[in-house]
Amino acid sequence: MRVVLFLIILSLFAACRLDEKTLQGNWQAVAFFENGQAGNVDMSPVRLTLSEGGRYQYKSIGLYREEGYYSVSMHYLFLTDTSHRPPIEHIVKVLYLSHDSLKIRMESDSLEQVIWMARMNPDSNSVQ
Known about the structure:
This protein is mostly beta strands. It is built from two helices and nine strands. Strands 1-3-4-5-6-7-8-9 form an eight-stranded antiparallel beta barrel. A hairpin with a 2-residue loop joins strand 1 and strand 2 (37-38). The longest helix is centred in the N-terminal third of the chain and has 14 residues, at 2-15. The termini are far apart.
């Protein structure tokens, strides 16, 4: 009985962790929500690249860019932007992850922001 209970707890713990291999790749924003309301902004320039070596790049609307290191803990993505001095850490909650979709939640100026992203084709600049 104890072994069964241990296996159930272990499988639940494993299910609570993000699959880093699925998370890695090039993502393009396709939708934006702020405090539950859909944003009326062209999100096509917004890109997130998560590399196998724990590096990331983020490009937003306009000239805003950041890059640095990322790590994963449970359903959270910790992004350390080393392009600023001192480095800035951003914490993003991954709400949904599949092979072709990524939904992230963050806060900016006490506003909840949610971005839906689609995986980009490796051979082109379009989404899958």
